[in-house]
Amino acid sequence: MTKTRGSETGVQFRKPTKDDGAGVWELVRDTGVLDLNSSYSYLMWCEIFSDTSIVVEREEEIVGFISGFIHPDQPDTLFIWQVAVDESERGQGLATRMLYHLLKREVCEDVHSVEATVSPSNSASQQLFIGLAKKMLTKCVIHDYFTSGDFPGEGHEDEQLFKIGPIKKEKILVEG
User: Fold this and answer.
1) Confidence band for 93, pLDDT divided at 50, 70 and 90
2) DSSP secondary-structure letter at 10?
3) What is the model's pTM?
4) Planar angle of CA 61, 51, 141, nearest 5 degrees
5) What is the DSSP code (8-state) at residue 88?
6) Cα-Cα end-to-end distance for the chain
7) CA dihedral over 111, 15, 11, 61, signed as positive or negative
């Protein structure tokens, strides 16, 4: 079994609600590296996709968020849209623990793969998904996905698709 680094003492992992939308928007904004979507999109995300997303609080402050959904064309795949971790919590394995919590949810019972798009400059996300595959004793396959030309305007990097799997649920252990 795979154990996560760090401790969950003092943090609460839970499904987001629409009341978390503003705090999630602020967390994403404050990372300074993630694409900041509209505040409305985070309200909707926290309301409609709460079963496949997660918020982490420490002392009633949102310090982590993952937005995800079950891929409509691949019901065995959890697509991760964004992973945001407050600067105070980085380097402690929080993003991995959030992914583990999501994968242990009943809604992810039939999930056997995780996918995410990652830009070449986002080494933290690259390490997260490659590390997840290693911890779960599975593979991480990386393909070209979106090119910078697919995005409007200038300045957006290419996005590569990271596919982790097959996932065996018995390889997930969430410390508590």
Assistant:
1) very high
2) T
3) 0.89
4) 95
5) G
6) 15
7) positive
Three-state DSSP class for residue 116: strand
* Secondary structure class of 69 (helix, strand, coil): strand
Res. 8 pLDDT band, cuts 50 70 90: low
* Domains recognised in the chain with CATH numbers: 11-171 (3.40.630.30)
**CA within 13 Å, CB half, 139:** 2
91 φ/ψ angles, rounded to the nearest 5 degrees: 80, 10
What is the C-alpha separation between 112 and 134, in angstroms, rounded?
15
Look-up of token digits 């992914």: 99
Side-chain half-sphere exposure of 136, counting CA atoms within 13 A: 27
Enumerate the H helices of the chain as residue ranges: 21-31, 39-48, 94-104, 123-135
> Can you give the three-state secondary structure of 139-172, one letter per residue?
EEEEEEEECHHHCCCCCCCCEEEEEEECCCHHHE
pLDDT exceeds cutoff 60 at 1: no
Segment 100-114 mean pLDDT: 96
- Please give the backbone phi and psi of residue 87, each rounded to the nearest 5 degrees, phi first: -55, -35
Q: Any residues with CB less than 8 A from the CB of 139 and at least 6 apart, and which?
A: 133, 164, 165
